[in-house]
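Practice problem 4.
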């Protein structure tokens, strides 16, 4: 299922029921669950990207399409089509 980025800690890549801490970097908004995650997003550029599991391409977490599984693990996609493909739709 597709989820809103504001409910995702982009460091531990988990979905939460509440809005996470927004972190502005270079005009983009990322989210972390604690001050440690906030600091990592601010200071470690590699923490702000992931790999689309369908295309294998690197995606920026702030602009990615985000999907979550039943265990609240999240995945980052380049497109809704890739998310749907991942979900078997």
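Answer key:
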């Amino acid at each position: 299922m597709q989820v809103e980025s504001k409910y995702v800690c982009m460091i531990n890549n988990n979905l939460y029921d509440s809005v996470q801490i927004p972190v502005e970097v270079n005009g983009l908004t990322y989210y972390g669950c604690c001050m440690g995650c906030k600091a990592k997003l601010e200071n470690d550029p590699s923490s702000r990207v992931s790999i689309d599991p369908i295309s294998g391409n690197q995606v920026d977490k702030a602009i990615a399409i985000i999907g979550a599984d039943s265990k609240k693990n999240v995945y980052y996609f380049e497109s809704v089509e890739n998310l749907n493909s991942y979900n078997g739709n």
